[in-house]
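Issue 218. Parser rejects a valid record. Input:
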Amino acid sequence: MSKHGKVLVAMSGGIDSTVTAVMLHEQGYEVIGVTMKTWDYASSGGSKKETGCCSLDSINDARAIAVELGFHHFIVDIRAEFGDAVIDDFVTEYVAGRTPNPCIMCNTHIKWAALLKRADILDCEFIATGHYARIREENGRHVISRGLDRHKDQSYVLWGIAPENLQRTMFPIGNFHKNDIRQMALDWGYKELANKPESYEICFIPDNDYRSFLKRRVPGLEAEVQGGNFVSPEGKVLGKHQGYPFYTIGQRKGLGIALGRPVYVTEIDPDSNTVTLGDLENLQETGMWVRNLNMQKYASIDGPMETITQIRSHHAGASATIEMDQANDLMQVRFHEGVDAITPGQSAVFYEGEDVIGGGHILSRFQAG
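Output the parser choked on:
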């Protein structure tokens, strides 16, 4: 019988999830490791060798740690669910002229559901992951807070987790800095793991070429959308583009057009297959509507509330007033100052101090009066 209970640990083979498992094992939990096979990149026709959390090497690395420490390890094949919920959404959003974040979709709809299902089967009280975030309890609700290491904080990608699932979730490394985690790995004798490079690509696009992925996934897409117009904010035709799904709001590089000054994608219109290019000031907006809301700290918000709102993973966040449109299940966000590149399809996460109030997907933007 373990001292603290049983915990199912998601193990990708990387340093963060490995240290999570070892840490809990040393604390006296009965650890069971699980590695989720979400994608088989060879089937997508990509050119780069499969890497990251779904590769055979990573699966073997996770299993080796479990064998060494004497706890069980399972591999769970969730490729079908992943394809339905994450990849189909990824393609649909780009074809709709929006820019998705598949990691958030995976956390929201796949990983937590898969982990909790297996935890129940294996009689585990808790699940644990190697995310840099923290969980605390307030007024009977479990709340996600930013990780201690602000540079590695991953609370932004966790806004979609249902509040009732947080009470069974653990983030053991959330109270540490990345350098501490590397040192722990070294102290435990895992030198190779401590020096293992981190992967920042989307797991099903390890060559980082999402345009080619879309072309392979949607036969005929390139022929259908190529040859549309680049236009100015005033509607003047500036040149031809390769197809609106292959651009994103805020993009400056790789446009294939020279205008004698830096320009940015400021608008994408799939109906007319036009991509608007403008100056940096054309990227600034002060308002947006957010849909698909998931509220964590509070079940709902009555009246306006002051927040720090983050609009992409590496955005520092900006002061904003949020107010719920209960009838339409939308959040209206009014920034106190203009922010750059509000991108439909990306996530907006609302913070009160260090705590995640909730989040959703950006639907549209507007210039607040």
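Fixed in the parser; the record now loads. The domain at 284-366 is CATH 2.40.30.10 (Elongation Factor Tu (Ef-tu); domain 3).
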